[in-house]
Structure formats: C-alpha cells, structure tokens
Amino acid sequence: VLTDPIFMCGATLANYFSLPFVFFMRGFPCNLHYEAPQCPSPLSYTPRLFTFNSDRMTFFQRVENALVALLELVYCNSFYEDMIKFSSEVLQRDVSLLDLLNSASIWLLRFDFVFEYVRPVMPNMVFIGGINCAQRK
User: Fold this and answer.
1) Cα dihedral 30/103/79/89 (nearest 10)
2) What count of other Cβ atoms lies within 10 Å of the Cβ of residue 39?
3) In what order do the strands lie in the sheet with 106-109?
4) Phi and psi torsions of 127, nearest 5°
5) Which helix (H) or strand (E) holds 126?
6) Buried-most residue among 29, 30, 59, 124 (CB within 10 A)?
7) Distance separating alpha carbons of residues 36 and 38, to the nearest angstrom
8) Where are the domains of the chain?
9) Tell me, what DSSP letter sits at residue 64?
10) Hey, CA dihedral for 45, 132, 128, 126, is it positive or negative?
11) CA 82, 85, 91, 94 torsion: positive or negative?
12) Which of 83, 80, 74, 73 is nearest to 15 (CA)?
C-alpha cells in the first residue's frame, strides 16, 4: 500500500489486512519521520522545524530547540488523537502513533539530501529528491 502518513488511513488499512506499506512524503510533523524508524536525531545537533537554527547552535538555541521538541509532542498527540482512536477501534487493540508508523516497510522521502542536515538514516529510508520539481520560467 502506497500511502501518505499525514492521513493514517493507509497505515491503518495496511495493518488491518497485514499488508506491507510504503510512506511517500515530503515531511512529517514533529520529526516523526526520524523518530518512528528510530534514526538518531539528537536535539543538540538537529534543529527543529520553525526554529530557524543552524546545526551550530548556542546554548540558548539548544534549550529553545529542546522546548520546541516538547511542544511538538503535545501538538502531535492532540493532532492525531482522533486517528489513534479510530485505528484502535478498527484494529481492535490499543495502538499508538509510533506503533502505526514503525511498521512501514519503506519510507520514500521527497527530500533532497543536499539541503537537509546530515544525519544517519535507516536502510529502509530512501531519498528521492527532485520529484515534483517544475522548471522555472
């Protein structure tokens, strides 16, 4: 099943029918596209979205980065709360957001790794940068 992780319907459907599924995405809120496959993403090095920090942060920028990461957890849990309840009803067991995301077979990341911060990725994560790029007129 080729699915978008923003709407967890594809992941729920694939888990229900015990099918492998592939995430195809540009980004995922709350840095879950690195947390779910268990990629190292230390807060002291990797800047969070919307902080506009570089990978060389001062102490106060690192503190800000950690606080934003904590706020993202609250935001993501509330954003996906209804979907987690729906998935739990369909799968007839308690599931968490990471339970649904961890079972992805392949993550197709529409990132261009040249523009992203250097970090290790898992073997099932494939960068396919350059897709959906129109030639500028």
Assistant:
1) -170
2) 16
3) 2-3, 22-25, 106-109, 125-127
4) -85, 125
5) strand 125-127
6) 30
7) 5
8) 1-125
9) H
10) positive
11) positive
12) 83
> Cβ neighbours of residue 19 under 8 Å, at least 6 residues apart?
1, 13
Side chain identity, residue 31: N
* pTM greater than 0.85 (yes/no): no
Which of 26-35, 75-84, 118-127 has the largest mean confidence?
Answer: 75-84
Cβ–Cβ under 8 Å, residues 3 and 83: no
Specify whether the CB–CB gap between 110 and 24 falls below 8 A: yes
d(C-alpha 72, C-alpha 56), whole Å: 21
Go through 86-116 and write b for each residue having 16 or more CB atoms within 10 A of its CB, e for each that does not: ebeeeeeeebebebbbeebebbbbebeeeee
Cα angle 127, 128, 134; round to 5: 145
What gap in Å lies between CA 118 and CA 16, rounded to an integer? 35
What is the Cα–Cα distance from 55 to 107, expressed in whole angstroms? 24
User: CB of 110 within 8 A of CB of 92?
Assistant: no
66 vs 41: CA distance, rounded Å: 12
